[in-house]
Amino acid sequence: MSPTPGIHPRPASPLLSSVPATVVMQRLVLKEIDLRSTIAYVRDHPAVIKMVQEGKMDLKPFITGRIALEDLVEQGFDTLINRKDTAVKVLVHP
To answer: Which residues pair with 63 in a beta bridge?
Structure first.
């Protein structure tokens, strides 16, 4: 049996986007399972880090705000939830 009922993964591949999966929707619905996905970039980090180090990429536009740890719930999560179209990163400091 697969680890998640109703989802039957195929063998791993170097390109995950090319790996088809069979989803039994009835099982997901009847068990009220949420199916979510995300995207991950592989082997891009060294090139991006080098660009930042060389001053070729400015990260300031990606920082939506800076908040104190005690304001994380009230301000940080609120910003990311209610401004999800414009908010990118909220930096939290102790």
So the answer is: 89
Residue 68 lies in a domain: no
Is there a contact between 7 and 35 (Cβ–Cβ < 8 Å)? yes
Tokens 């929707």 found at: 25
Our count of domains for the chain comes to 1
Q: Domain containing 34: what range? A: 1-40
28-79: pLDDT as tens digits: 899 998 887 777 777 788 888 999 999 999 888 888 888 899 988 888 888 8
pLDDT digits (tens, 9 = 90+) for 17-35: 567 778 899 998 999 988 8
Nearest to 64, CA basis, from 78, 52, 53, 54 = 78
| Beta-carbon count within 10 A of 90 CB | 19
User: What value does the CA radius of gyration of the chain take, rounded to a whole number of Å?
Assistant: 19
